[in-house]
Amino acid sequence: MSAVEMEVFSDGQLFVLTVLMFTGGEVFVSLVGLASKWSKLRKQGTISISQRVESHDDEGVELETTPQVANATDTDSWTRNSDETSKSPIDAKRLRREAVRSLSLVVLAIVVAAHVLGGAAIAAYVYASPGARRTLRSKALGVWTFAVFTTVSTFSNCGFMPNNENMAAFRRDTGLQLLLVPLALSGNTLFPTLLAVCVRAAAEATRRPELVEMTARNGRELTGYYHLLPARRCAMLAATVAGLVAVQVCMVCGMEWGGALRGMGPWEKVSNALFVAVNSRHTGESTLDLSTLAPAILVLFVLMMYLPPYTTWFPFEESSGVKDHPTEETQGSRLLKSTALSQLSYLAIFIIAICITERENLEEDPLNFSLLSIVVEVASAYGNVGFSMGYSCSRQISPDRLCTDRWTGFVGRWSDSGKLILILVMLFGRLKKFGMKGGKAWKLG
Predict the structure, then answer these.
(1) In whole numbers, what is the pLDDT of the chain averaged over residues?
(2) 383 Cβ contact list (under 8 Å, min separation 6)
């Protein structure tokens, strides 16, 4: 969120902002945490080794002063048993230390590759696109300044752009939008999936035992790294992100094809809708004026902004090793229960549906048909309260001479479809005690 226009900053000031965005990015901060953990584990390993050397020296002195009451065979067997008992914890600590070190290198490689390849790709596109070069020239921005600043901002999910209009100035540059989409995803919502793929590739290429161990079992338990998720969770995370983005793209294209997307070609409309949908989760770059979007889309964007980055539809139980019921029954009931959503999710869906049915009234009579009035009406129906904002003819922007104030609730002015949806909301509110356990298949962290 910028409080001043971005074009007032000089190149030096933009460089300072770039450094701040890079060091404040979540991936970089987690990399610093990994480096700190590896340094701490290495110091602990050094201390334990010195303690073992001192203990062996003490044992040697004690053996020299102790009479030889045991034969060589007994001594060898005792030494072998003591080594076996002390080997396991030492190997576990060493494995964890090496795993943290290798994971740090993988994360560092991802950060470097994302910024180098992203900056180079954006600069190459600007050089190849006369329209993009013309836009930067009118803003007195250098190509590499724009490329580096945009890459860092997008990957760190900051949302700043070195120009005033954000990405609205590049709404026709679909190639640039498609270059920024993977940067935004890899720096936030799909970072665990990208990290799991890179760790598996590194394990297959190097066959290092710590990397193989991370792919064989839960790497988060081994390294303590929050972003390292199991393979199945990563796959479901990618599917969830794709599903949520697809829903947003369909909503934007369906409701704004002749509205906010007016004047573009079909491919440009789809590209802009995809770009805004991806950025609605956490990045915040936009090619459209959000104030011109339909309220139903804004409610959906609010829901997307509310969700944590690693929100996943995961209809699987964590492996506990104990099965109380037959597999078929468990899988069937689990799949059925996983389709249930939380109460808040259903309310958001109802509000979006009513905003769609009352879209014409929202445009022509915005003071009465405000989004807040609809939210109050839906919440009142859900809680079976009965409060209503009402309707006033004096608040009409274009006064209707036939309009008369009546002692009816706000819903009395809705369309038949909107009233039917509100009836469903009231029934859902009456029966809400039967759905309080819904939404457990959605993992928010």
Answers:
(1) 85
(2) 429
Cβ distance 167 to 285 under 8 Å?
Answer: yes
Please tell me the predicted confidence (pLDDT) of residue 315.
Answer: 83
Distances (CA, A) of 398 to 13, 355, 360, 363, 390: 48, 20, 14, 11, 18
The two most distant CA atoms of the chain are separated, in Å, by: 116
pLDDT above 70 (res 63):
no
pLDDT surpasses 50 at 69: no
- State how far Cα 418 lies from the chain centre: 33
What is the model's pLDDT at position 85? 41
Specify whether the CB–CB gap between 399 and 406 falls below 8 A: no
Q: Which long-range contacts (CB under 8 A, 24 or more apart) does 367-375 make?
A: 367/395, 367/396, 367/397, 368/392, 368/395, 368/396, 368/410, 368/413, 369/413, 371/295, 371/298, 371/299, 373/410, 374/295, 375/351
By DSSP bridging, strand 442-443 and strand 312-313 are antiparallel
CA 152/CA 166 separation, integer angstroms = 14
What counts of helices (H) and strands (E) characterise the chain?
17, 2
* Cβ neighbours of 17 (radius 10 Å): 18
Distance CA 103, CA 199 (A): 8
Looking at 85-89, 356-360, 372-376, which range is the least confident one? 85-89
Amino acid at 233: R
What are the boundaries of each domain within the chain?
Answer: 6-58+86-223, 343-443
